[in-house]
Protein 1
Amino acid sequence: MEPIPVFAPHIGVDTLKHVTDALDVGWLGMGALTKEFEERIASVLNLRDRYVVVTNTGTSALHIALLAAGVGPGDEVITTSFNYVADHQAVIATGASVVMCDIRDDNLGIDCDKAGELIGPRTKAIIPLHFAGIACDVEGVYRLAKRHHLRVVEDGCHAFGTSVDGRPIGGFGDIACFSFDPVKIITSIDGGAVVTPNRAELERLRHLRLLGVDKDTLLRYQNSRAWDYDVVSQGFRYHLTNVMASVGLSQIKRLSEFIESRREVCRRYNAAFADIDGLTPPRTDFADVSPFIYSLRVPGNRRDSLIQHLDKRGVGVGVHFIPVHKHTYFREARRGDMAVTERICQEVLTLPLHSNMKPAWVERVIEGVTSFFA
Ligand SMILES: Cc1ncc(COP(=O)(O)O)c(C=O)c1O
């Protein structure tokens, strides 16, 4: 029996062709394809007066986004504990401290009432995560940010292509970050992006991405480089190469197809699990969602035996996430009440979801779950 992985990238001959063409150009580093990838992202997200900077990972995107937003030593940044540790590490890398907040039961995104209670004189920014591709309470987040003059850095790493009231994440609000790592909806093998509404921040992000060097970006966008340059700020080697951008370009051209095929699987799962006692499928019809993972909630005391049951049927699963406040390095971080997080983290189970997933695999996953609860 062929094992079904929980994640599987969709790599077609189109991707191979893009890569060999990029290799043929002979300019492997950051270059014209990096720029083209940024332009494609801007076009897919329908951006007006907003700017895209691609990076080598989603984590580096978050790091420079926070720096560009003015986060630094002495500041606090609020994010959820029910999140990937990339966000928390990005905050620490700026010299700021992370403050962890609880989530809501309905969308597993930040609980804005509880976030409000955590705001203090040192709070500089909020990082709300759109978990699994499902938008968090963006209205609540921006209301809170406005009231307390906070920056918002949206973690859209799971949600490239998700919309809220017809507007894609990244297409409104403050800064948004995305990830194109190997398992995301589209991949550039590894990669990320920052979208900012601020022209001055675009320049700052470009400097932060490339060792603080001033004129390199525009020349590199023409597959060339400057030999007389100045270094104008702190900076990192966080740029995305032409070859990685070529993978991203091949993938972004198929984004709608990938999203649609994932939505179909999610809807099939939702329908199959809707009437099973004790199961909580995601509360969405996926119409505005670009689904990254399918996160099913199961009774906490039965999760381990379900995992074993699925394993016997060759169905791989994941657990997203172990809350970050449980990890050794973050145990002492300031946090609020975590009642929902503590419960949810016992219940979540990520089922296989791929772009263009084989129908027989979808049925095997469903049979695995339903037979366990029969
Ligand atoms: C919620 C979240 N934020 C940030 C990241 C970091 O992205 P990357 O792996 O591209 O660094 C991830 C990666 O899985 C993630 O799941």
Protein 2
Amino acid sequence: MGILDNKVAVITGSSRGLGLGIAERYAAEGAAVIITSRSEKSVERAVNTLKQQGAKVAGIACDVGDLDSVKKLRDFTLDTFGSLDIWVNNAGLSGPYGPTADLSIESYEQVLDTNIYGTYYGSVIAVRHFVAQGSGKLINLLGRGDKGPVKYQNAYAPSKIWVRSFTLALAQEYADSGVGIFAFNPGLVETDMTQQVAAIQGYEAKLNPLRTIRRMWGNPPEVPAEKALWLASAATDGKTGIEVQVLDFPRVVRGALGEGLLRLTGKHNTVPLQIEVIPPAVP
Ligand SMILES: NC(=O)c1ccc[n+]([C@@H]2O[C@H](COP(=O)([O-])OP(=O)(O)OC[C@H]3O[C@@H](n4cnc5c(N)ncnc54)[C@H](OP(=O)(O)O)[C@@H]3O)[C@@H](O)[C@H]2O)c1
């Protein structure tokens, strides 16, 4: 018996990284899960991985920044498993690190399309379905910048403050509907997003501290996935508007103390970081 038995969950951006970690955790607790991301091949690969783990799983490619694609995702879920109980708007893009005017308009828009429109479309589609059935859990992913400005991350950071504000307002609007609407910041997670980064030429060295920060505060996807499981479970029935921040004060202190100890003993290893250097956009 699992705590998500008979539940059906959609996790966007679940072909790898945190989304895959959440899908694996939900499936291990009995949920039927839908794997989805832009790349059909990656979806297929992740579906096969989950099948080998004995999961009830199906997959479909979907770009969350495209409304028709998100509607197809909902229809595919209902056609495949017959119901829909949990929707996690996890798909996210960080964009290149650097001064705002040096980013190409296209790369900026891609971040907003995924993080803002993707969350908006997914939320509206899920909330309409959940309100009609009088139950359901919507989980929207926060990230760095969800509480204020971050220099050189001026697409990602404001997109996440938007997600936070949008999600908490949505929770207030549907407070008496039986639907749980939650904002979830997973902290620093060891995924492609933090291991394969892009920077505008001349700004790549500014990303070097990420190696230390990851060593201090990074978690494998399994750690935040456990919190995402709690949010989706019956433990939050009757609740809404909860905001979870995995990287809380005790974790920050533990990470800093651990780093101090590693340095004292000379045991701090080099954390791999791939930086793609991008020329500044032509005016
Ligand atoms: N990693 C961290 O430290 C961290 C910290 C705070 C918050 N978060 C948040 O956690 C979420 C997951 O991050 P992650 O670290 O797991 O990222 P990741 O490793 O880069 O994985 C992102 C996933 O989203 C998919 N994706 C990207 N754009 C998409 C789109 N337009 N439509 C559909 N799928 C899309 C990717 O697959 P395709 O490329 O095939 O589409 C992939 O499956 C994001 O919302 C991120 O902002 C992460």
